């Protein structure tokens, strides 16, 4: 039976073979990002329902969040993964240009004229 240290070495060796994009998929986190997006877009104008991370991972709500972003002029590619695999970070585009999530949020608030305090909704 392998020791803990031997197992960690094997895992690290496999991780070293992966690209940054593949590692993001292992790390996951985008289900919570998408859930947070749903709460933001709901608070901004009721553009979609509010979802928690678990529901994002177990049910298909990607299309609803993608459509809500589209209503405020942002093309979003949603990567929620599932309970067993993470997804990579979501991708946000405005006029064909990839932007950060913060830029997408600022754009959405500008388009709708609804400005919120950063702490008024859960990230």
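-> sequence recovered:
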């Amino acid at each position: 039976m392998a020791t803990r240290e031997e197992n960690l070495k094997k895992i690290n060796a496999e991780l070293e073979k992966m690209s940054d994009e593949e590692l993001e998929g292992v790390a996951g986190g985008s289900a919570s990002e998408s859930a947070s997006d749903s709460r933001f877009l709901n608070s901004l104008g009721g553009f979609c329902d509010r979802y928690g991370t678990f529901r994002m991972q177990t049910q298909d709500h990607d299309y609803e969040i993608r459509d809500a972003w589209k209503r405020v002029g942002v093309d979003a590619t949603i990567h929620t993964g599932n309970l067993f695999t993470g997804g990579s970070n979501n991708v946000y585009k405005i006029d064909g240009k990839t932007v950060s999530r913060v830029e997408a949020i600022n754009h959405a608030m500008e388009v709708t004229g609804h400005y919120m305090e950063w702490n008024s909704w859960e990230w």
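The first strand starts at residue 75 and ends at 77.
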